[in-house]
Write a structure and sequence with these properties.
The structure is a homopentamer.
Chain A lengths: L1 E10 L12 E6 L11 E5 L8 E6 L1 H7 L11 E6 L2 E4 L2 E5 L15
Parallel strand pairs in A: 3-5
Antiparallel strand pairs in A: 1-2, 1-4, 2-3, 4-5, 6-7
């Protein structure tokens, strides 16, 4: 599992029934203190997450299908947002608090 | 899942029945705003994608087999194009629109 | 499997029953002699590990479910701490001893 | 799936019946136009490939077992050569043709 | 599968029965000619390997369980040493011979 920021969305007429009505989120992996790290992924939303949220993400086929329940049996999905993050502590100090997060602009993270 | 551009094709007499009649696409992973990122893969087409399309790609064995249906039971495949992308939004601004995409030349992306 | 240091915790109302009461640990992968290497992950604790411990980590969906037992059948988890490390030997010389480890401060590893 | 060049072989008395009589190929991943990219792997041959061939490779446990048929049920294998490549096209231009490939010397790719 | 050098061992009271009596090896991935490449892993020994040996390693959950036999059903393991390497050939020239390998010192590879 890893931390990521939701930075946008993707619209695509995916050729599979289960994905047709899904929101596809652009997920930018971040370090514990919020620096971008690694490549942006596209994932499904299971946590009512929106642009600007820091989220917990699972990135694996078998695990992902568990969370989709009965629909998941045929789901060709691999990356899933399972929770919006409330707090992150490094050592015993708070380094991220959901209530005071900065809004994320659209341009800044384009090239990461 | 990740975004990629279809940049070419591969022809190979693959030693497995299910792959014999398949189109093998060269897929170059891209960031949300279209910069190349990471190594080019070879994938199967399930979205009627062609050279120049930006596509949504799944890269995992179990998930991939789901999408192939009954044939998939014996398919040694891992990378599959599941959709041609219509739009990508960063924050709430459009950063990719399928209808206005630039054509992709053959030479430019050779060494990425 | 890989070695990591526990550097913090994450609090998130994960949208899945099995994760609701779990501690989510921030795990920083390290080389045998303790240098940071690779991206920080978020994992579940199965070894009563705490901030400052060096631990052994498994990072794979199927294996992870084995360790969760009956609860694991529906668990969307992938990264699990399976043991606190006592010793690491490089060649035949001790290079890490749990009893003499240095305390890990919260700020220092923030940007890794 | 990815493209690779066969650059050598490995001989090892592997501690598992199914691998005892197998040829272990050294596989160097390449970009579409043939530049080395990423770490060399060791894989099994299912395409009668030899040193100097450009090949199509699958690198995943579940998929690989499918291709091995009945023997595959117990096979601890993950990387398999499934086809020798005939042509690679970037855009709509040929960038690799099996018949005119350059021979690959043993020393040149040693350190990649 | 990949090549690695056994550079040390890890001692940890792993919280799972099957791992309690296992030797945990520190594995440093190497290129065909023996240069370090990529991060050190921790793996189980199925080839009676020791410090200084060059080995063949599998790094995947499902495959790894096959090799453990009946015990493997509950094993949370992912990285397994399946063979000590006798020879490596690049092109058609020998580039590694088990009998003449250089001993590996403990300090030199500490920071890789």
């Amino acid at each position: 599992m890893f931390l990521a920021d939701v930075i946008g969305t993707v619209v695509s007429p995916v050729q599979h029934p289960i994905l047709e009505t899904e929101t596809l989120l652009l997920l930018r992996p971040v370090t514990p203190d919020g620096s971008p790290t690694g490549r942006t992924r596209v994932g499904l939303d299971r946590a009512e997450a929106g642009v600007g949220d820091r989220v917990l993400v699972i990135d694996e086929g078998n695990s992902s299908r568990q969370i989709l329940g009965s629909k998941g049996k045929d789901a060709p999905v691999k990356t899933i947002v399972v929770g919006v993050v409330d707090y992150v502590e490094l050592g015993h100090e708070l380094c991220y608090d959901h209530r005071t997060r900065e809004p994320i602009g659209p341009r800044q993270e384009a090239s990461r």
